[in-house]
Design goal:
Layout: H1 2-20, H2 36-54, H3 66-76, H4 81-92, H5 95-123
Helix pairs in contact: 2-3, 2-5
Length: 124
């Protein structure tokens, strides 16, 4: 009887612990940091920035200005670097929500690439 009560107590404690950590919750735990749409928009800007920087390796001092560029992105979206980092860490641990965010990022980048291609065709 004592063993059963002890086992029951352990199960109850584990269930409460998991519930407190939102392990059984279907809601997006990362929403408390940044909603999925905002995260997708920020990451789109980050990826475009990194692409721009990597395509200009010969520009002196461009890497020195990266912090300022990131600050501009965060300011544009009304967040801080710390908020972004916490949200990013959370989304990295949540595969389903991160997959949704990355699909949105890829879609947004594809749309921008199509618009750029159209402009190039028009100017030729």
């Amino acid at each position: 009887m004592k063993k059963t009560a002890s086992l029951t107590s352990i199960i109850i404690i584990l269930a409460l612990t998991f519930n407190a950590c939102n392990w059984f919750s279907s809601e997006n735990r990362c929403e408390k940091h940044l909603d999925r749409r905002t995260m997708a928009n920020v990451l789109t800007d980050v990826f475009l920035l990194e692409s721009q920087i990597s395509n200009q390796p010969g520009v002196a001092g461009i890497r020195d200005s990266v912090a300022n560029y990131y600050a501009g992105i965060f300011n544009k979206h009304g967040i801080t670097r710390v908020e972004f980092e916490k949200a990013f860490e959370c989304y990295l641990l949540d595969q389903d929500n991160m997959a949704w965010v990355m699909d949105e990022v890829l879609s947004a980048i594809s749309i921008q690439q199509s618009k750029l291609d159209e402009k190039r065709e028009e100017s030729e």
